[in-house]
Batch of 3 targets.
Target 1
Amino acid sequence: MAETESFKILVIDDSPVNLGIIKKVLSQEGYSVFTAQSGPEGRLAAEKNQPDLILLDIMMPGEDGFEVLSSLKKNSATVGIPVIFLTGVSEIDSKVKGFSLGAVDYILKPFHPKEVLARVRIHLKLSVATNSLITAQAEKLKQIKKAQTELLISPDDFKEAKFGVSFNSLHEAGGDFYDVLSISEHIHGYCVADFSGHDISTSYLTASMKALLKQNCTPLYQPGESMKMINDILVEILPEGKYLTSVYARLNRTNKKLTIISSGHPPAVLARHDKPAELVNLNGDILGMFKDAIFGERTFSLNKKDRLFLYSDGLIEKNKSVWTNGLEQLPGLCEEFKDFPIKEAPEQIRSRLFETAGNFEDDVVIMGIEV
Amino acid sequence: MELKEYAENLGLDENDFKELTSLFIETTKSDLEKLKSAIETKDFTKAKEASHSIKGAAGNLGFMDIWEAASESEKASDNQDKNALKQYYYTILEKTEKLHGLTDNG
């Protein structure tokens, strides 16, 4: 709600005098007050005007206050609006019933206008505090997602690396990460990593991973050496219970040599232009757990138009059937889309897998690289 | 008691209070008509409803003498005591008329 806008209070009471009193008292304090003289009228007004708070009389002819309260709490449009009910001193049971139906407070009748005002103020403050907490948290998460997305390089910004990517982050602070590095004019590094968990700390870690790749993947080091150094730092900085799997590929377009380093990551797909696509099973230890980690490594001599596909385990994890499905279908799909530009192929593969293997419950990255 | 005092007790402006009192008189007269016919037909449920309505409004405006009479009238409905109901009907009518005088003069 904008600060200049006044709070809206809906009063539902069959007594015109009570409506009049409450309206006068609240209006003179700057609230905008809507009134309804029956339950059904009140429910409609609540849905339409979206008040910040509702004052509801219990004893009304026709639909009584309990029925109204219960309907308000069942309607997604009104469930979050705090309700204070008005009840007579003799109606002892109604207090319990009112609370059990979801009211935040009650006011005994006959009421004093100042008491009404005081209770309205308290509950508006509580409601504002709660809502702003929720909004602030959601806002924070949005910023993180934005920052994470900004960390991710786009194929259009790095055309000489000849890659395409499909990145689908289902979580505000996702655990998936990819990066493309320029090691020298004709040598590029490609990395897909997957952190355990999707909480806030994960998003800071993806930023750290990006920095580590930049610092350690240089012409001075062989790919295996780079990953070993990154591992040693991650062992120091990762919180307990946090780890990541990653696959790192270094492609030299001058001699067409490709080296793949796997750290506990699912197999990459090598799709040569004139041969059936194959899974590159390399295993290797997970990153960030042990100082003396050993990674899977293999080097291939490739030809022009050959492709490599890296992906995150969101594509094949979660349940056995999807795992098998994804893994079985992946090489075939990489072949099937071999005539699609490399920029588009990952997205095509992803949408085809979605069609056949069902929805994925995790973040998904698919990266395609062409020699 | 003057209307001004009632208004001050409730923290309301005198004119606003006068307006509410007029509204009260209007609705109470209509409730009293219902109460009268309920007494005549011995419809004690209706008598109770009318008494309850008067009681609620009177209490919230601070008209405690009317509130008391209406509370008694509600009990008399529960007891199906026609004679007592007549008594309270007169009391409420009389006190409401008095209020009417206050709003006219004030």
Note: Residues 33 and 63 of chain B are 20 Å apart (CA to CA).
Target 2
Amino acid sequence: MRRQASPIDPAVEAVLQTLRLGAEVDAAGLARRWAAVDPAGLAALVEYEGCVLWLYQRLQELHILGAAPTEFVEWLSARAHRLMAYNLVVDAQRDQLVRLLNEFRVPHVLLKGAARRLMADVHAYGSARTTTDVDVLVPHEFAGPTWARLQSAGFVSTPGPGFTCEGHFHLPPLRNGGGVAVELHTSTSTFVPAPVAWERMRGSARVAQCQGGPTQVPSATELLWHGITHAPLPHAGAFRIRYFQDAAVNWAARAEIDWDQISTRLASLELPDPILARRWLGTAWNLVQPDRSTRPIGTASALHLGRALTWRLTVFRRFGEARSDAAPQVWGPRLVSRGRRLLIDEATRAELGLPLIPQPRTAFAPRAGRRLAAAAAGVCYRGWCTLRRAQTPMEE
Amino acid sequence: MASSEASRALSTTSVVAATKDQVSSDLAGEAVILSLQTGMYYGLDQVGALIWERLRTPTSVADIRDAIVQQYDIDSEGCERDVLTFLQQLVDQGLIEIRDGTPS
């Protein structure tokens, strides 16, 4: 029996309704909803969810941007332009890389954001995401020599602290002064052998044009699958809109997805936790079409996105910036930022029924402390649920 | 930003086009332009984006003016003044160049 849904914050409702693809939108009603929104904490939430560009584009295209609170619109607009400008830097790096790979006659397929940025004509909003580097898949036997040739063409290896090739499916990142890293992949996942990854991607890729010349981008099925494997499951951070977007835009574009292939892979050992991956897909589906009867993956039970985002917004409001005009610092190492992320992550884990996970590679005392903090965060969340009389089932 | 182009006078007969030192992208009907020389980025509203779209190929100022007048039903004289001011700003920032010859 389905119990009464818990209240979802009006700001969260407005965000989700605006983002949702594939459904009829009552623009006038949504504008009224936005006009009544309390903007406190909203910038931080949108930043955390990684949906700045998507939200900005949707608000613009529905002609309701002006209905939202002015201070939020000003922040969103400035942030969207800044992120898009950074995407252009990444595009320029992609073009340069493609030019060199074509010169070297290296077969390649662009991955993730670098590919999606070239596919805006096919998957609307697929490119409305922040892209930070250029990922490209090359055949295993080409990877080492190409990595060396790129260094002779001005790129420098810049592995981050603790980076090791062992167990990795890409070579150490390369930079050439432009600030944007290039990663040569030999596979798309730790669990997929390089020849299989190449065969999958190359076998179904289509040709695309960029300023660097002809290149290749993956099929809708492979883009979707890579979206699933790229989401950092089983970490709670995978249940953010930024990651759901990669799956949702494929569905919304009614792209031809080989669901048998996706189901086969979900049933294999390719993912560390296929059940959680199904639930992740089910959650992504809620951003496409709220009608559950048409959910393509069938039985996947999802995270209650409205409730999860309401909690996240509550955290950002409760532990927000002292100055209302301050840029939200969501990801910094400051104690308040880390504390907020812990509260958010543990709530997601509690909703999904996942165990507390201490930070890896730490000594016993910090692990115990982290576990204690995580338990406290979980208690906070359950207390909040009780206070809001949140009697909703954990799943939707 | 000073530019050698800045010293060339813009008129309605000038032919202008985007330089190669920039990349740009549509953003929900607006445009974002990044100067590859300076690393600075610029946002254009929908009218600016409409002009920018035409600047991808060499175009005369008069053609741009006429397109705006046709689209927005405004007076030609005021539009010409605004377009020239806007294009001059783009020239000053090194985003477009004034070319000799006729538009393609």
Note: Helices of chain B lie at 46-54, 61-72, 76-92.
Target 3
Amino acid sequence: MERIRSSFRNVINVIKKSGRASTRYIEGLVYSLLSTLRANDQGRFLTYLLTFLNTFEEKAVGDFIKELYEVFPLSEEKFQQLGYLIIMGLMSAKGGE
Amino acid sequence: MTSGESFDILNFTGNWFVDLCILGFIKILEEYYGWDLEELEKKIEEDERNVFYDYFPAAYIAFYLEKEALKVITELQRKEGEIKRKLEEESNRLKIGAKKSRKKLHQLESKREAINRSILKLENYILSLRRKVSSLKLKSMDNDKIFEAAWNTILEFTQELIKVFNECKDVSDKAKDKLKKILDNQGNLRKLPIWSDFYLNFAMFNPNFELNRQKEELKKLLRGDIAGDSEILRKFDRTINKFLFSQEEMRNITYAPTSSEPICKMLKKYPFVFLICFEAAFEFFPRLGYYVFYSPDLSFTYYVNRRLREKKWAMRRRGLLRLTWRAVIDSLYEHRARWVLEDMYIIKYGRIERQRIEEVEYIGLDKIRASLILDDKIRESLNKTLVFERTGESVWLIERFLRNDELFSYIMNYFKERVHKGMPIEVGRAHLIRALATEYSLKKTAEEEDALFGDSFFTYLANPRHHIRVFHDSLKAVSRFIRRILLSIGGGREWLASLIVMLLAPLEKLNRNAFMNMLLSELNKSEETLPWYILRRIFNSIFVDDYWQYYGLAILIDIWG
């Protein structure tokens, strides 16, 4: 979990720097991710997240996805922890740098 | 004698039964001579013989004489109440024109006056009894002479009580029967008119023993002579302590018959003087029964009980526990007796029926919780009463806290009611948050691995405020931020109320996923960039912490304001 956390931090930095994701877009994404978390739907969560991350070409994003691939599927509790961590990260990336 | 010895006489032993005996002794002497604990210690130091041979027996018997008089007064008062009710009925009837009522009214009024006169007489008797006892002079005579003088005073009181009883016309048959028992055919005094349900077998109270025998018994008792007729005192059973079984019921041959010797060892001087005072330690509370507060520290116990006694009449039904707590907390605050908090008990019994005690209750008090309230800030925050408007119920936080009740649910319900009605928190949100923080920190400490025997237990006790401060600080940063964001999204107080009500539902069910989901989707509506360190704090306090509900509720309370 710690490792994912730190590599996710790098992803957030990439998102912030690129400035490609609009505030509106991230808001929508966060909203969708929250609804999948509420329903404990890990498949849909990954679909939304990967669709978004797929638009970035940086290495940090690739590393993060690799690590995600290793840990999924998760128990409900772990999924919630990771899920909220990711959502909060995205929320903090709103508005770019 | 030296002061060391007086300290030996009035010193708690750690055995609650024996200690309450000592407390009873102090209470009796205080009642009649007005000496508080320090003064009594000084008196014993100055002249021990006088205290035990003169002051004590006179006060002891006066105590029981007064009890008899009080019993009759209560009975008369009840009768008077009945007549008052009848009087009202009749006067109502008179208003609608019933002619017979006028005559009846007269009869009732004269009856009522007679009863009131009797009550007044008895009350005057008690007053004069107290005056006489308190004006007893110190006499430097030998033990026997001192005792004789005391005995004569006792007889004087007794004669007077009988006279007053005879004058009172409305005394019940029961009381009259009792009078008949104590007078012989020629109308002379046969025995002392004192009864005790607690010590029925002691010669002093035994209805079959005559006056001289009672006198001898009292003398022996004062001397601590357990030989001869005082054989009853040799056994340690129900005769001495109603909370025990009787010798016959104690079937265990190895241990029974238990003798009262070990107790006499604990009470080195005048053991039986103290033993017969046990009953006096208890205070009677109308409708609730007999009640005493106990802790292993003499002066602390003494002050709490005295405060209880002083406030006795200000008490309403069911307020007894609250009253005790106020007394305990006040005394604690004044005397700062931290170590005393190790054990505190409230001992209560309903009544003695056929020498059996009914409804005995012991209530133990938790040390950690009690010591927490020594902290000024914590006490101030907990010393709040939450009034539930819907039910009219009021909850005093400090009392619930000390009784190991969970404050969380009370605060939750109170807060919910406030939000529903759109009202601000009357007692102040800072106090509620601190109360939550206190309970939270207690739970966290209990969770630690070495909670019981390790260092954390003591470090916690040494500095409970530190933990509470940590909770407070991390909360403030988060809640202020959330409040600002929510207010920037828009919507007035009504909108905020509906949002909080929505968030309270998952909090009540302890569903952290739903709580977090709702909170984040609200925050997501803001266009502002949310700083990562704040979000991480929210995550840590809600997702990493097992007692996240305290944070959750505290955040909501702080937002509502």
Note: Residues 1-7 of chain B have pLDDT under 50 and may be disordered.
